[in-house]
UniProtKB/TrEMBL annotation, chain A:
Residues 26-145, 167-487 form the Amidase domain. Allows the formation of correctly charged Gln-tRNA(Gln) through the transamidation of misacylated Glu-tRNA(Gln) in the mitochondria. The reaction takes place in the presence of glutamine and ATP through an activated gamma-phospho-Glu-tRNA(Gln). The gene is QRSL1. This is Glutamyl-tRNA(Gln) amidotransferase subunit A, mitochondrial. Its EC number is 6.3.5.7. Belongs to the amidase family. GatA subfamily. It is an enzyme of class 6 (ligase).
Length: 524, 450
């Protein structure tokens, strides 16, 4: 049961094959046994059970609020949740209880979803490994999968698993791990430079970054206001469509959401890609791209060709400037957004009392980790009067060029772009931390970041297992607000590749319900 | 609306920015403002000034409006020096406000005060703000500099903590003097911020910020550009409620104070300075903040005029001298007046019909003011204030007075007409104010010439 998709389990709830309370309890139990993954910062056991009870009452009356009624979900800990601690994995907000729900959280709750807890992340969503939060790193569930264990070369005996566990990617690693390890049926992440798609690829789940302006950011603690979007993590593309339908739409509390009405959609059972034009951007053959992924990418292109789609090589010439451009704009906005953490109104306050200024300084030094402080300092530098034109304005211009690249390509008849999501499969933690956060981010964001610059929708679809037995995903990028087309293509691709289900002991132990086996023949 | 009322050019596209600095009353660490492109620019405000304190000699002056920008308010800091602590009130933090920047076209406290008074009237008329300074609805900072004629403008200081119009004039004048003295003594003026100390009537340097602040302005990413339309640029099929049409607003602007005053003068033949007093908003120096801006004095005046045969030129005197002084004395608004326009009109009609003298009328007004619900006529009857209608009786009294004042009669016959007034006064006394002075004068003159 726990390994079903959201739609499957929702049907089971509807038919009474399982009750919301049972479902909730099973998920909570699994969270407990997978504690070593460190995917959750806060588990809201009491409230979750209460919500499940309410859902059960509604379902018994035959009045469910919708498809999400009674479905256990998890939310990244940078979304405000009323009455529940929201920390952003930072000392600055340890113990901070949000007074309100983020709009997306409210929407989920209004539709009866059961909130299991807040998931772990890189501090303030800055990072690509989910390793730099104050609650420790998140472990990729695949580290404990049969598939990975079979392939890993044993070094010393019992230390194996401990040393060889791989990262989830980031910064929404907790959410990705939670979905991947079956503790919930969907999770919210955030995506500023790839933070939903990157961990989705490493954890073998679907990660959707919607078009900027489609889903409200109200209540999402901001990193880069002009690039952040709430991200959706699910086990299959259809589930992502369901979540999207329940979250998208104008929010008067977020002036950057579009006014037009959003019509939720269902994807066709048998998607047809023969009339589409798929673009392969040559610049995404980035330095450091593993040969495995390169080969998968190529095979994927062939799949589309064989199905009758037009597959063309395209060029996004300004791709190589996107990391530097992102660095300037991101740090500038970060410096601005982090200015509110002064210890006066909420959050951590230092004991230093000599003067307001010294209190600010001490509070911010104590509350933020190096990564955050580094970005604040950089950002403030770029915003200085004498530097503003040289850096900030220039970066905005480059951003426009990057966005125009996409515009030109889509304008020339290409419908969807197909690219890798990450440069390689997940690396072991010990290897990952050899380089600092900034270096890693610069490396890992390269394939995902440009979509944020241009505000375009993008999705990671788990494709195959690597030689090391770890997930690899491919990314589709679509036109603004054309999520339906994007998800249709993604669904078609998902059906083609038949990505294997993770074989996780803990999950199998907890799960004695009915679920559908996926074909074990994998695409590689 | 304010931009249109002040003849500004309205920017159809204006932008929002973040201005960063750390301060206890700024919870976000930045203030949202419009630094790059504000909503309105290049306007003007015309105001009137009395020369030499004579209301009868008014000049019109203009101060240019540099810009109007929308921005966020910060919280309020209350410094408790006794306990070395600062209390921060965040209730108003984040609330939207409008900042109006004027060009340095004014030359003294009086001008500044007059300009701000007119601005208050305009804002209230539009409904943009109640503009009561005591309530913080209108806050004024003064930028002051001095220079010799013909030379460039001097270094300016900014004066804050000005809580009323009266203090504004004082602060400006003090600062001008201080700067002149300082420069006269060979000193220099630094570009600093000073606070006005109302108790001492002077300006003092405020806590000084190290060097000049770099506010690290950055476009506000959460607020898209503010787009306004006019009739020409309004796109078809736009949802009415989603757009602002400048022309539509312009058509619906109410009459501004200057227009209202002109209309009053034209329609009723009252003097310009009367129209000023009628419109001047009664908040005044007493900072009686409970007064709403809708004093309705002009409306009261117009209502009285409608209901009486007395000419407006005469009515205005009763409004501005009698009614207004009662209101001020008792700290009442026009709406709270125990004497309604109907009652006053009634009283003035009695006066106009010569049924009572003006002295009597004032007495009646005093009685009406007590608000006991009596009509003017009832009061007149009660206090026996009717004018003597019996001419014979009046003649007799006049004769009696003449007979009793031999010296004065001789003086009048000798050509001193002023003494006649004394005789009239005596007649009035004898009749207990119930004689018509004009008639009395006629009778006396007649008798004296016999």
């Amino acid at each position: 049961m726990l390994r079903s998709s959201l739609r499957q389990v929702s049907a089971a709830l509807k038919e009474g094959r399982v009750t919301p309370t049972e479902l909730c309890q099973r998920c909570l139990a699994l969270i407990k046994s997978t504690k070593f993954l460190n995917a959750y910062i806060t588990v809201t056991e009491e409230t979750a059970l209460k919500q499940a009870e309410e859902s059960e009452k509604r379902r018994k009356r035959g009045q469910p609020l919708g498809i999400l009624d009674g479905i256990p979900i998890a939310v990244k800990d940078n979304f405000n949740t009323a009455g529940i601690e929201t920390t952003c994995a930072s000392n600055m907000l340890k113990g901070y209880i949000s007074p309100y729900n983020a709009t997306v959280v409210q929407k989920l709750l209004d539709q009866g979803a059961v909130l299991l807890g807040k998931t772990n992340l890189d501090e303030f969503a800055m990072g690509s490994g989910s390793t730099d939060g104050v609650f420790g790193p998140v472990r990729n569930p695949w580290s404990y999968s049969k598939q990975y264990k079979e392939k890993s070369v044993p070094k010393s005996h019992s230390e194996d698993e401990e040393y060889n566990w791989v990262i989830t990617g980031g910064s929404s690693g907790g959410s990705a791990a939670a979905v991947s390890s079956f503790t919930c049926f969907a999770a919210l992440g955030s995506d500023t430079g790839g933070s939903t798609r990157n961990p989705a690829a490493h954890c073998g789940v679907v990660g959707l970054k919607p078009t900027y302006g489609l889903i409200s950011r109200h209540g999402l603690i901001p990193l880069v206001n002009s690039m952040d979007v709430p991200g959706i993590l699910t086990r299959c593309v259809d589930d992502a469509a369901v979540l999207l339908g329940s979250l998208a739409g104008h929010d008067p509390k977020d002036s950057t959401t579009i006014q037009d009405d959003f019509k939720p959609f269902e994807l066709p059972d048998l998607p047809d890609v023969s009339k589409l034009s798929i673009g392969i951007p040559k610049e995404y053959h980035a330095p450091g791209l593993s040969s495995e992924i390169l080969s998968l990418w190529s095979k994927a292109a062939d799949l589309f060709k064989n199905a009758g789609a037009k597959v063309v090589e395209v060029s996004l010439p300004h791709t190589r400037y996107s990391i530097v451009c992102y660095h300037v704009l991101c740090t500038a906005e970060v410096a601005s957004n982090m200015a509110r953490f002064d210890g006066l109104e909420y959050g951590h306050r230092s004991d230093v009392k000599d003067s307001t200024e010294s209190m600010y300084a001490a509070t911010r030094r104590e509350g933020f980790n190096d990564v955050v402080r580094g970005r604040i300092l950089s950002g403030n530098y770029f915003l200085l009067k004498q530097n503003y034109e040289k850096y900030f304005v220039k970066a905005q211009k480059v951003r426009r060029l990057i966005a125009n690249d996409f515009g030109k390509v889509f304008g020339s008849g290409v419908d969807i772009l197909l690219t890798p999501t990450t440069l390689s499969d997940a690396v072991p933690y010990t290897e990952f931390i050899q380089e600092d956060n900034r270096t890693r981010s610069a490396q890992d964001d390269i394939l995902t970041q440009a979509a944020n610059m241009a505000g375009l929708p993008a999705i990671n679809v788990p494709t195959a297992l690597s030689e090391r037995g770890l997930p690899v995903g491919l990314q589709f990028i679509g036109r603004s607000f054309q999520e339906k087309q994007l998800l249709t293509v993604a669904k078609w691709f998902e059906k083609q590749v038949q990505f294997p289900v993770i074989q996780l002991e803990e999950a199998e132990r907890h799960d004695n319900g009915v679920f559908q086996h996926q074909k074990s023949a994998s695409f590689s | 609306m304010t931009g249109l009322a002040l003849n500004c050019h309205i920017n159809k596209k204006s932008l929002f920015d973040r201005k960063h600095y750390f301060y206890a009353d700024l919870p976000a660490g930045y203030q949202i403002t419009q630094q790059r492109v504000p909503i309105a620019v290049n306007g003007s405000l015309s105001y009137s000034l009395c020369i030499d304190n004579k209301m009868s000699q008014m000049v019109t002056k203009t101060v240019r409006i540099k810009q109007i920008q929308l921005e966020q308010d910060s919280g309020k800091s209350l410094h408790d020096d006794a306990r070395s602590q600062t209390l921060v009130d965040l209730n108003r933090a984040g609330v939207g406000l409008m900042e109006l920047v004027m060009e340095p076209d004014m030359c003294c406290g009086e001008e500044a005060a007059a300009a701000v008074r007119e601005l208050q009237l305009i804002l209230q008329t539009l409904g943009s703000s109640q503009a009561v300074m005591a309530e913080g609805q209108l806050r004024v900072d003064a930028n002051v500099s001095v220079h010799h004629p013909g030379e460039p403008y001097g270094v300016r200081t900014e004066v804050k903590n000005i809580n009323s119009i009266r203090f504004l004039a004082k602060a400006v004048d003090y600062e001008i003097q201080r700067q002149i003295e300082e420069l006269g003594n060979g000193g220099t003026i630094s570009n600093e911020t000073r606070a006005f100390d109302s108790k001492l009537g002077c300006t003092v340097p405020m806590r000084d910020k190290e060097g000049k602040q770099d506010y690290r302005f950055m476009p506000e990413p959460n607020l898209p550009p503010l787009i306004l339309y006019d009739a020409k640029s309004l796109p078809a099929n736009m949802n009415h409620q989603q757009v602002i049409n400048i022309d539509w607003i312009r058509e619906r602007l109410p009459d501004l104070p200057s227009v209202k005053r002109e209309k009053l003068v034209e329609q009723y033949g009252i003097l310009p300075e009367h129209s000023f007093t009628l419109l001047v908003w009664q908040q005044d120096q007493n900072c009686n903040s409970r007064h709403s801006n809708e004093d309705g004095l002009p409306e009261f005046f117009e209502n009285v005029v409608k209901q009486t045969q007395m000419k407006p030129k005469k009515v205005i005197g009763w409004i501005l001298n009698d009614l207004l002084s009662y209101l001020k004395q008792h700290s009442l608004t026009v709406k709270e007046s125990p004497v309604s326009s109907f009652l006053l009109a009634d009283l003035l009609n009695l006066l106009e019909k010569k049924e009572i003298s003006s002295t009597a009328a004032k007495q009646v007004l005093a009685e009406l003011w007590k608000g006991k619900g009596k009509t003017p006529l009832e009061t007149v009857k009660e206090q026996k204030l009717e004018l003597l209608q019996d001419q014979k009786e009046l003649e007799q009294i006049c004769q009696a007075v003449i007979d009793g004042q031999e010296n004065e009669v001789m003086a009048i016959k000798a050509g001193n007409q002023k003494v006649l007034n004394k005789l009239i006064g005596l007649v009035q006394k004898k009749t207990q104010g119930r004689s018509n002075p004009v008639l009395v004068k006629q009778l006396l003159e007649k008798k004296l010439s016999e």
